[in-house]
Amino acid sequence: MLNKILSLPNGAHFYRVDLHNHTPADPGFHCGKYNLNNPEECRELAREYVRFAHEVQKIDILGITDHNDTSWIQQIQEAAAELYPDSLIIFPGVEVGANEGKRQVHFLALFNPHTNPAHIDHFISSLGLLPHARFHDGSSPTPRLTQLNTRQLTQRIVSREDGMPGLAIAAHAIRKNGLFHELEGESRVLAYEDPNLVAVEIPNTRADLSDFVQRLVNGEEEHYGFKAVACINSSDGRGLTKKLNGRLPVGEKATRIKLSTFNVEALRHALIDFDSRIRLEGSHVEEKYPRLLGLAVEGGFLSGDGKPNHKEPFLIHFNQNLNTIIGGRGTGKSSLIEAIRYVFDLSPRTEATATQHTNITAATLPKGACITAFYELANGSRYKIVRRAEQNPTVFDIDSGQKIDIHPKNLLPGDVPLEVYGQKEVYEIANDVSFQLNLIDTFLIESLHEVERRENELLRWLESNSQQIMRLEDEIQEADQQLAQLPAVTLELERLENDTILQKLQDKKALEHEKHELQRFEQTIRQREQTLVDLRTTLTTTDTEPASEFLAVQTNLLNRVHMLIDQTLETLLNQIEGVWQEGLTERDQWQERYAANEEAFQELLQTHGDALSIERYFALQTKKQTLEQLALQKSKQEKRLGKLQAERQEKLQALHQVRFEEAFEMRRQKAAELTAALQGNVRISITAAGHKEALAEFLKQLFERRGISKNVFQLLAESDMRPLE
């Protein structure tokens, strides 16, 4: 059964393609022993041409592109149809030159297989190259150019007006008569940005190109519109032997191109999607990975269109890059998906899809129906999984035919053998980028665990830091409002501290300062004394009769301790008072000096009246001192705020590194690995902070009831800013 399944068609594959080859019509073609004047030998040479290309060079698709000539196309088409009708595809065409003033640029014009060479010949004539005027006269005729520039020529090649659309490729682009070699400046920009140009021919890999050309074909040059283009390798072959005079034989260089059909439109699409569908010879690496080979369903909806007596099973050969099943309504997509899920005994992801799975399997797999899946591991081991309706699956080793005691889920160590998503699940994924990211994360569970732990730790620290910063900012803002009064207070004090009374005011100010400090000292002493007095009041002796002799002894000890503390505190209080009294004489003398100064000052007030407002002065002085103290405090707060903000930036940078360098890079690399593993059938890309809808919704909730339009949040989300938190 497996052999029968593997013989069925199964979609797109990579084919070895050489699109640029000449024939004996070219004066430089090495014909070897063949006499071109003998028709039979020409037919034999055509057969040897295709045999050499297909069997020796392993070419699957061959382009025939002589300069301004189609005379050998039909013979090669006939030889290929005779010898390799199902395995060698011929794309007929021509190599023509565009006229760019003193320079010429060559292009390959390729047309659909089986295109009549006469139609291609008419196309050449329509370019102004009439049959007898296509080459310059001389012993070694050289092809004439069209009178069209590059854009005009490519437009004629791809035009559908004549019912013969073609494909334009820039031939030997970095060599003589090549687009990059011959053109420069605006001419090269115009030629390269031509939308009809989808590929350029290069001799080796992209990495072998000059830095500029690499940037150009990779879409990194702003002046060229950031256009990226497919690069292909071709032989420009001129013989069936090894190198002769620097020329390569037919099929010597090739490009692997992924195709499912063979026409210029399919080829054009493959070249446009070059990341996934084009592989240069030096960059193509054959990879091995587990895959589902095929499926057989006996009985039920999928077998024989549901006819109850139909004996032939439903067979399907899956493509090695299988990732999606597409079809119209009622064609059996869901039935096939659920059959695959059923045979491997895989559980649906949601309750809704679980119900759907149960209903579909019940409807499409009646009692007696049987599903057989064929599965291959990366090492080539093949297994057959058989499951009948209402029974458990059974696994067999295909090589030995022996039954294996293993569940299908465990065929692939450490992982499920395949991921299956039904139509509703795919719809959910398509509408939920978070779920899509979770799919990637399932490949990174262990690696992301440590990253998520550090991310949560940083977020907790940042939350605490944010609270401190907001508190300090509020305090600094309040201080700024108060400090706005300081210049006016200072100015008024300066007006009061002038003329002859300045010294007296300064003396008075000094005494008032000393008075303030003396009062503070006195208050401090009394507070300390009161603390000790309060402590004494807490000491109580125990007068109750103890319940036992033991407690009586302990109670006595406790009372002695209390008495000792009380005596010590009393002694300390007396000592404190004694020390403070040592300065009594000096304080009395100061009081006398203060009283004399106050009396003199009152006389001064009587003399100067309201012009000398001591109350105002002292009030201003006190306010200034308070504000200056506040300024010092604010300075400390600003330093603290700066430190907190600097620390925050460090932590934000660390968070950025965790999210956008570590976690994002892990996901990006895994996405790249998966894209490579899927060989371009699915391309996965992850954009840092790319979930704009989620950011817009977050901003909307954050500023709810602020009267801000929803469009503002959307514009902010779609801007270039990238939030770190």
Task: Characterise this structure.
Helix 2 links the parallel strand 1 and strand 2. The protein is of the alpha+beta class and 725 residues long. Helices cover 49% and strands 12% of the residues. Among the domains are: 272 residues, Metal-dependent hydrolases (TIM Barrel), CATH 3.20.20; 141 residues; 37 residues, no CATH class. The radius of gyration is 46 Å and the shape is elongated.
In short:
The chain is of the alpha+beta class. It has helices at 2-6, 39-56, 73-83, 117-126, 150-158, 179-182, 185-192, 211-217, 264-272, 274-277, 333-343, 351-364, 423-431, 433-441, 445-483, 486-496, 502-537, 549-581, 584-608, 614-677, 692-702, 710-718; strands spanning 13-18, 61-67, 89-100, 103-110, 167-170, 197-201, 230-232, 255-259, 278-280, 291-298, 314-317, 370-376, 382-388, 394-397, 403-404. Helix 2 (39-56) packs across helix 3 (73-83) and helix 16 packs antiparallel against helix 20 (614-677).
